[in-house]
Amino acid sequence: MVDDAQRVVIFTGAGISTESGIPDFRSPGGLWTQNKPIYFQDFMASEAMRIEAWQRKFNMDDTFTEARPNAGHMAIARLVQAGKVTSVITQNIDNLHQNSGVPEDKVIELHGNTTYAKCLDCGQRHEIAFVREGFEQSGKPPPCAACNGILKTATISFGQAMPEAEMMRAEAETLACDLFLAIGSSLVVYPAAGFPIIAKQNGAGLVIINREETELDQIADLVINDEAGLTLSSLVPHN
Ligand code: NAD
Ligand code: ZN
């Protein structure tokens, strides 16, 4: 199917990164079995919640800073280099597609990026180290250095608006593709999980690669229930 396709879109979820040591949300032992997510409204509503959110972020941070792209990310990067893949749409926030060598302008992050922070008021980017230093000094996240606004990791929380430009790009890429590969996603988080449906309805082939069944298996042309890294390395061998 990849050989026959002209424009492939890759769509990834937390499952592509578990082999890099970042747990997913829903699997046994996943992040949600430890902590319920903090909703955007609650983050905005109280400083105590923002302290809690940042504390959790610092506790998790080594997991993200130490993670390296795995065989699955590397196989996707090779497919991109081969010129087949028009974009990598990801729900992940870990920066591993970029770290694996996929050019930044080909990665569309639907849920943002946890490797830096952003001011919710003026949009200025801040490094995590800046927030951590301020937090260690005062016991709470520092305000934005530019406008005194509220700093949050550059991720999209439940209840927070989706990034408009990324959503529009992802939709355009999905409509233009003839093959859509959904990898390592349970396909239950909307609106992200809408993209495979759009692709299929628009006539593209739909392949799902996931360890366990997903919500959209019944509409897929091919479902592979296996590890993402192993499956993708055999799909795109090293030259
Ligand atoms: P999910 O946790 O709902 O689903 C992950 C899916 O991947 C599961 O169905 C699981 O069976 C499968 N899986 C796990 N390891 C796999 C492997 N090695 N090979 C094949 N399949 C594997 O995750 P989701 O659907 O991506 O949605 C949850 C949200 O959580 C995302 O929107 C994302 O923003 C966020 N998240 C991101 C990260 C990250 O950046 N790495 C990690 C956890 C959660
Ligand atoms: Zn600001």
UniProtKB/TrEMBL annotation:
Residue ranges of domain Deacetylase sirtuin-type in the record: 1-239
Residues annotated to bind Zn(2+): 119, 122, 144, 147
Active-site residues, record numbering mapped to chain: 111 (proton acceptor)
InterPro entries: DHS-like_NAD/FAD-binding_dom (IPR029035), NAD-dep_sirtuin_deacylases (IPR050134), Sirtuin (IPR003000), Ssirtuin_cat_dom (IPR026590)
Keyword Cell cycle among UniProt keywords: no
Keywords: Metal-binding, NAD, Transferase, Zinc
CDD domains: SIR2-fam
EC number: 2.3.1.286
UniProt-recorded Gene Ontology molecular function terms: histone deacetylase activity, NAD-dependent; metal ion binding; NAD+ binding
Protein name (Swiss-Prot/TrEMBL): protein acetyllysine N-acetyltransferase
